[in-house]
Amino acid sequence: MTMLSSAPGGASVRGPVTPPPSATTTKRRTQGGVILAVPALVWYLVFMVGPLAAIFVIAVLHWPGMLQPVSFAGTGNISAVLDDPVFWDAVRNTAVQLAVAVPLMIIGAYMLGYYVAQKPPGHRVLRYLLFIPGLISTPAKAMVFYAVLSPDGLLNGALDKAGLGSMTDAWLASPSTALGSLILLDVWSGIGFTAVLFAARLGSVPDEIGEAAQLDGAGHWRAMWRIHFPVIRDFVGVVTMLQFLWTLFGSAQNVLLLTQGGPGSSSTTLSFLVYQKAFIAADLGYSQTVGVALFLVGLAGLLTIRRVFRQNY
Fold first, then answer.
1. Deepest in the core among 63, 131, 144, 183, taking most CB within 10 A?
2. Kind of pairing, strands 61-62 and 12-16?
3. Cα–Cα distance, 157 to 173 (Å, whole number)
4. How many whole angstroms separate alpha carbon 80 and alpha carbon 116?
5. Hey, which residues does 6 pair with through a beta bridge?
6. Cβ of 130: how many Cβ atoms within 10 Å?
7. Which residues make beta-bridge pairs with 5?
8. Pairing state of beta strands 2-6 and 71-72?
């Protein structure tokens, strides 16, 4: 198909015109997209929705081990969980862990990321150094913290040499410090990686915004929180969601490697309780009832974070 167009001097020139796509072509493209999405949809249903549904099903069963007979428990598992003081200790410990670790990690990582985004001398090397904890495996991180916090570890040795021997403690075996040690591990292992993410996002903020803030007399502190933070508020919300989920569901491995939930239940978290009841106590019904509670806590936390960090415009 061609059309006439006016050229300089009044001459008419024929030019090609692309015909609009027909309804048949559009329909074929839509069908092709659906067909390509089918494998991903099947994968999601089998490996995401399936296990999620299984949690709710197993939570109403009495299942004392993988190869043991299964019977219907109804609300019996719920009663057992709610009457168990260890569950409430796990709830308290998880709440303390989230309330301390996540804010410390996000605030510290944002400030550190802002500093890196200003491109100080050696900022490229600093990015790599911050990323190192994210490259270390969880067992290796646990070994590092065990070497530091064990009774004969580096921290107690440093306190002894500094004349503060009265402050030494069995940090991982004391009810008053075991949970705090795990929180310290969470913050240390996550703050550097999160700071690199913030630095990358802050690096995409137009330079004109920072220059305008400087012309208005804003210092770094004010520019960091009053200028740049609102610009990347939605990104802060996404990173907070990720760290919230990682802390909530990933704490079991640190507890397993360092404290086994003890002393007593002073460092038992909800995610570790799910593991302990399923694989040590062989009580799958109880385990997945706690798993349902863990899922509801995670869902409520995500909705709350999303509401707090949503943009106001």
1. 183
2. unpaired
3. 17
4. 50
5. 12
6. 20
7. 13
8. unpaired
- Tokens 């072509």 sit on residue: 25
d(CA 225, CA 107): 11
What are the residues whose beta carbons fall under 8 Å from the beta carbon of 154, sequence distance 6 or more? Answer: 147, 148
The amino acid sitting at 79 is S
Helix, coil or strand: residue 179: helix
Instruction: Please report, as a single letter, which amino acid is at residue 161.
Output: K
How far apart CA 275 and CA 209 sit, in angstroms, is 49
The DSSP string of 285-302 is HHHHHHHHHHHHHHHHHH
Asked if residue 103 has a cis previous peptide bond (ω within 30° of 0), the answer is no
Residue pair 277/293 in contact (Cβ under 8 Å)? The answer is no
Cα separation values, 202 from 51, 224, 236, 267, Å: 37, 10, 11, 36
Residue 269: which of 183, 153, 171 has the closest Cα?
183
Is the model's pLDDT at 215 over the cut of 90?
no
Whole-number Cα distances in Å, 191 to 49, 126, 219: 31, 13, 24
Question: What is the per-residue pLDDT across 226-273, written as a single tens digit (0 to 9) for each?
Answer: 888 988 999 999 999 999 999 999 889 999 999 999 899 999 999 999
Q: How many other CB atoms are there within 10 angstroms of residue 288's CB atom? A: 25
In whole angstroms, give the CA distance from residue 218 to residue 142: 42
pLDDT, tens digit, 9 for 90 and up, residues 46-75: 888 888 899 999 999 998 887 788 899 888
Report how far residue 29's alpha carbon sits from residue 24's, in angstroms, rounded to the nearest whole number: 9
Residue 59: the pLDDT is 92
Determine if residue 217 is left, alpha or beta; phi over 0 gives left, psi from -120 to 50 gives alpha, anything else beta.
left
Give just the sign of the alpha carbon dihedral 193, 195, 201, 203.
negative
Q: Is 29 exposed, middle or buried (0-12, 13-18, 19+ CB in 10 A)?
A: exposed
Reduced to 3 states (helix: H, G, I; strand: E, B; else coil), residue 146 is helix
Which residues are bridge partners to 13 per DSSP? 5
> Which DSSP state fits 264?
T
